Amino acid sequence: MGCCNRRRGLIAGAVCGAVVAILGVVLIPLGNSIIQGTVEKESVIEPGTTAYDNWAAAGAFVYRQFWFFDVQNPQEVIESGATPVVVERGPYTYKTRYLAKENVTFHPNHTVSFLLPLGAIFEPSMSVGPEEDKVTSLNLAVAAAYSLIPEGLHIMLENLIKSSNSSLFQHRTVNELLWGYTDPMLKNNLGLFSPYNGTYDGVFNVYTGKDDISKVSTIDRWRGERNLTFWDDKYCNMINGTDASSFAPFVDKKTPLYFFSSDICRSVSASFEESLDLKGIEVYRFGLLQNTLASPMVNPDNRCFCRDLKSTRNCTMAGVLDLSSCQNKRPVFISLPHFLYGSPYLQDAIKGLNPSKEHHATFLDVEPTTGFTLRFAKRIQMNMMYGPSNVITVLKKVKDYTIFPLAWMNETASLDDETAALIKGELVSRIKMLEILWKALLGSGVVIFLLCSISYCIVGKNNQSKFV
């Protein structure tokens, strides 16, 4: 009788173990479904969601760090055509993107429009010196006029240069070069980012994700248009992806992330590089491909971005993008800092450049479950061009067309400790707790089932041996 009770108890234990193990197995898809539903709900851009709270407010501070290329031999370049030698100076850091979005308006087609106010506040504690530091740099007015005035009118430019006592290079403060100064030759305000304070980026119109979470934050229109008008080509004028501050939740390593940057007037894509730990949170690092600014000979998709055959050597030069069509005709070329991944010609034309992926590549660190970008570094170099002239005195010794680096910018932001603790408490810890729970249930259930089953077999075998 006792033996039968023991065997019944072991059977019951095995059944319980199997049930517990099944619960553990069932908890996997059930838990994932609960997490997915919660994340998707909180990722929609509408009042009351986590995404909206982070999206509408200023959020984490974004900083723009600037490094300038200080010319060491300006007279030798002008008088004997020497190769320019530059020394990098910086960073000079400004707090930007600290203002909340304005004119936020929701529309019936599940989109929301807004303006992004621009402002810059100098941060002395994050800079190598004051804004009043002076740098010897390419003369913006002379370079711009050289690019815009036909060769037949160089005598006019020569007279302007002489009458204003201008030259190929100038000595200006950091503040002037960035935010503007009155140029003596053009009698106009010039600066790499002039005007900036008090202006807006937009209007942007993005999808809220209310009807389709895969479209959340994707740009529907920019400045009222679904496509750009800068490049005279349907492909290059496409506006793809988000503004890179966030993406659709549940990011896949195998799928590139697309984003549009108004700074470079085009859309680009980033591909997965590696997984990293950011303050206890796993993030996926996505980086721009090396062929993003490649020559059309290497990347045919870039052919429609090539506009100036003279400066880009019949579109065979890699590493620069002519922005004149989207910068009010200002002849500005952008590249990666120090001409990273650019043609050797670009780097050989200037002494003192040291490109490296670690310091000069653009990347995004994205939390894969929510799709939020928790850290990023957008690195862009501003350049202008000058070349030879038989008429203009300061250019008579110049031997070839030169894409000259003025400064490079690192626009960056990173997850703060408070937000990291919130993400870990609200998301990471719950996912880990759910994972521990189902593993515990599955593991203990299997162990109980196996122990009871083995014990049952042993008891049955011993019972049989008594009757032999």
Task: List the main descriptive attributes of the protein structure presented here.
468 residues; alpha+beta; 2 domains; 11-stranded antiparallel β-sheet; 4-stranded antiparallel β-sheet
Description:
There is one protein chain. The protein is of the alpha+beta class and 468 residues long. It has two domains: 61-98 and 120-197 and 227-415, no CATH class; 417-468. 30% of the residues lie in helices and 27% in strands. The protein contains nine helices and 19 strands. It has helices spanning 2-43, 50-56, 74-80, 140-148, 154-163, 174-179, 344-348, 357-360, 417-466, and strands at residues 62-71, 86-96, 102-107, 111-117, 120-122, 134-138, 169-173, 181-183, 188-190, 200-207, 219-222, 257-261, 266-278, 281-288, 320-322, 333-335, 363-366, 373-386, 402-414. A hairpin with a 6-residue loop joins strand 17 (363-366) and strand 18 (373-386). Helix 1 (2-43) runs antiparallel to helix 9 (417-466).
Task: State which percent range the strand residues make up.
Answer: 25-35%
Indicate how many domains the architecture comprises: 2
Order of helices and strands: HHEHEEEEEHHEHEEEEEEEEEHHEEEH
Ranges with pLDDT <50 over ≥5 residues?
A: 17-21
